[in-house]
């Protein structure tokens, strides 16, 4: 296999402007077959715009983009035949029943009738929706609709699965079900691109994280690499009023910030925090290892980081 | 390769039309009533009510004169409303096309599919109203009924294109009222449905630019049994030309809305 054959997505300097608004400003991103890449970034960072470029509903205004080595703008059909998309908005036909809806989509993706019925049944069972096959979409809960959007995306048995905020607004049970399924697809060798605002979800599902802000890639790497590089160590949460007592005793190499009305200290080693508590006689509300969320907040500038 | 993609386009457009049918049949009665109610009302009020005061037009009672125009009106309203309000709702509130575009379906397939759907639907509705008129004894040439689905369907294409164009240009759903008042209503009232255009020189020139007029004439000629090949072919050609021109324009505008 050649090198480009294993590259599922290649974006170089990808740009998109809506009038005077630049949604993507030179976005560089590569996704290799079998990867699960998490696209993180604040609202309006350009995640959905990037995804739209991948299947041809957004026409880039600059840069290079290849999906399976093809230009999605020029050969959308060939590209879309190999990807399954769960868009940010479910866009299901509310008046139709679950089965009617999926049968229509099976036609759209060119599944022969006999095969379609079998595949739909199989996927409905896979997403725990088989008991709803005759229910009108209108009557489904948000979580059921979301799972149905997964069924729809999986009808083509895609090589690349694109999930735009798959679990936003879902309860923990459904979320766990979706995570479990996505991990399954990874095992089957599917490539996954997922956007999310849940850092825990990204850490759990993705081998690589891309942080997008204002249309540009701010950082990229495995969750561990990103934490090591941008926010290593451990974080202690202290009551806000103890800040004056803590400040003079901060060990070297610590960062401080405020979060949820608490004074937070991130130190390189766990012992630094225990020592700080002992010296100042202030006990922390919570101690935890630094996480992807710390990286995210720091990079997208909403962590109100004071020190660095 | 080229041939293959044309076949795929045909297949996918057909599926887009099927989708509309699947949704439409859910509420069949409510969906077909308004388009039939309107011409029926016109016929009752003008044809029956006004007819005695008017006398004959070209040897026909006023009701007979109105009848083919009502067939055309059914096609016009079916096509315009389906492609304006209907398409707009599918595009914005229901996000139907957002979902379709995640599959092999592209914008050309969507637009062609909408045209297939509206031609079939308007053709059938026109035939339906034509059959009612036939039963009322208002269609002298029985054989014309065989042409109603085709003329109705063809007439629906440019009228549907006007609908699609407006659906891709309006800023909100209320603006269709404006399109109706300034485009559809003039077309409807001035295209020779209610009065013959012979002798009104300026209007008979102006009306050539109304695709609806050409459909009305085709229906009048066939249902009165006054077929004239030269005039008939010129109207057919005009309808085709309007279909191609307006269809292409509406495709460009719809693409602007669906591909950001
Ligand atoms: N159709 C459009 N017309 C004009 N601007 C748009 C359009 N679609 C998106 N934008 C703008 O492009 C930018 C990127 O939007 P995008 O939807 O890609 O963000 P996102 O990262 O997906 O955000 P979210 O997390 O809220 O889904 C935003 O500033 C948005 O306002
Ligand atoms: Mg988004």
Structure description:
The complex is a heterodimer of chains A (308) and B (260). Chain A is α/β, with parallel strands linked by helices. Chain A has two domains: 4-227, 3-Layer(aba) Sandwich (Rossmann fold); 233-289, Alpha-Beta Plaits (2-Layer Sandwich). Chain A has eleven helices and 13 strands. In chain A, the strands form three sheets. A six-stranded mixed beta sheet of chain A has the order 5-6-7-3-8-9, with helices on both faces. A four-stranded antiparallel beta sheet of chain A has the order 11-12-10-13. In chain A, a hairpin with a 2-residue loop joins strand 11 and strand 12. Chain B has one domain (2-259). In chain B, 79% of the residues lie in helices and 2% in strands. In chain B, strands 1-2 form a two-stranded antiparallel ribbon. The radius of gyration of chain B is 19 Å and the shape is globular. The two termini of chain B are 28 Å apart. Chain A binds chain B through residues 18, 49, 52, 55-59, 76-77, 80-81, 85, 87, 89-96, 100, 104-105, 107-110, 152-153, 156, and chain B through 5, 8, 11-12, 15, 18-19, 22-23, 26-27, 94-96, 98-106, 258-260. Adenosine-5'-triphosphate binds at residues 18, 21, 23, 41, 43-49, 88 of chain A.
So, CATH architecture of the largest domain in chain A? 3-Layer(aba) Sandwich
Largest interchain contact: A-B, 32 and 26 residues
What's the main sheet of chain B like? 2 strands, antiparallel
Strand order of the largest sheet of chain A: 5-6-7-3-8-9
The shape of chain B, in one word, is: globular
Could you estimate the helical fraction of the residues of chain A in percent? 25-40%
Mean pLDDT across all residues of chain B, rounded? Answer: 88
Give the N-to-C terminal Cα separation of chain A. 45 Å
Counted up, domains of chain B total: 1
SS strand fraction of chain A: 25-35%
Number of helices of chain B: 10
The strand count of chain A comes to: 13
The CATH class assignment of the largest domain in chain A is Alpha Beta
The hetero compounds bound to this protein are: adenosine-5'-triphosphate, magnesium ion
Q: What does the overall shape of chain A look like?
A: globular
